[in-house]
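job 3f2a | input accepted
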Amino acid sequence: MPRALLVDDDVEILQPLAKLVESEGFETTTSQNLGEARSQLLGGDFDVVVADLSLPDGSALELLPQIEERPSTEVVLITGRGSVDSAVAAFRGGVVDYLTKPIDTARLRGILRKLLRTIALRDEVDALRTELRRAGRFEKMIGASASMRKLYDQIVRVAPTDATVLITGETGTGKELVAESIHRLSPRAKGPFVAMNCGAVAANLIESELFGHERGSFTGATQRHRGVFVRADGGTLLLDEIIEMPTDLQVRLLRTLETKKVLPIGSENEIAVDVRVLAATNRDPEQAVRDGKLRDDLLYRLLVFPIEVPPLRDRGDDVVMISEYHLAELNEEAGTSKRFTQEALDQLRAQPWPGNVRELRNCIERAFIMASDRIGTDNLPFAGASQPGNRRRGLWSPIGTSLAHAERELILSTVENYGGDKNQAAQVLGISLKTLYNRLHKYGVMKS
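job 3f2a | predicted structure (448 res):
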């Protein structure tokens, strides 16, 4: 049962407070001064401390350094003489809420119920950690390397909060999986998870996709459209490839993050939204600021909690673990029992994987199709390459092939050759990133 420490020198307040907290499912311990509270904190673990700010022997703020040693303990302060200075000091010390007397019991119940959900999430995460130690899995991610364990711990720490998160990492490392895990382990898990790829939306449509529009607000606006902020209300919004967003819209995005309100195109009325925002990019955000692609004030707002997803080449034996796991999935779907040879696993382990996990999974699928029973080195798509990771191949089309078909083959081959890195593929092809995305949508390779 979750435990609460209640601290107030007024017994007439302390006793009914204990009954209220107990009715919400907590086991309570009471103290009437600072010294008793310190002793109680030394003697046991508490999920929440509800304390009067002014005590006979000092301020409850003096308890904060001792409570900080217990990251899972939340603090709610109560006072009959509230002031701006004391509130600021409380929140700087990590206090979750600040109530004035007479106590708003409905608000306190809401705080306690939210805390109970956080405790339940913490128990779920502990179970996930146990699963990780046993099978090298966390949510939908596979891997037990030191860099992945660090990633899992970061997800566990930030998920129960409402903090904005900036997820960085190379193409194909699994940034969207990280975002989904943060959402599923958060109090917003029952709300929607909406993902928007800022680089895949045409420049003239991205403002509408973000904030929505009213019918008739511009040519082609034949009906009202709800933007992603409104669609994600009560849940989580992932803005992928955030650096591809035009800088003028970054100003509007920053305002929305600060005010929690959106103004649809053609409307005079703002809409209040309750959305947790996660952002992701495969580029260096600080370099993007220097290049004028990302506003520095937006970067600072997104950098509340940065997470970097490690590249596959730095994850050691995770390559083998992922390969075996994905092969088992394919075998189950097909009703087969194909196996890797040790030589094939060694070669997979030796590759640099510029396209990371996405490239590895594609490689395993192709090898699975090519192999009849055992998957050997000759079944791997880079068999015979002069060096690991050299996957370049020639492009040949017979006479009579349409220009559209040849263009399709060239684009898909280039994207594959660069391990799914669309920025690099677009540069080599001499087209814009948005043009490349439009082509991939047309070919059905990417979902809208």
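job 3f2a | The domain at 313-379 is CATH 1.10.8.60 (Helicase, Ruva Protein; domain 3).
job 3f2a | closed
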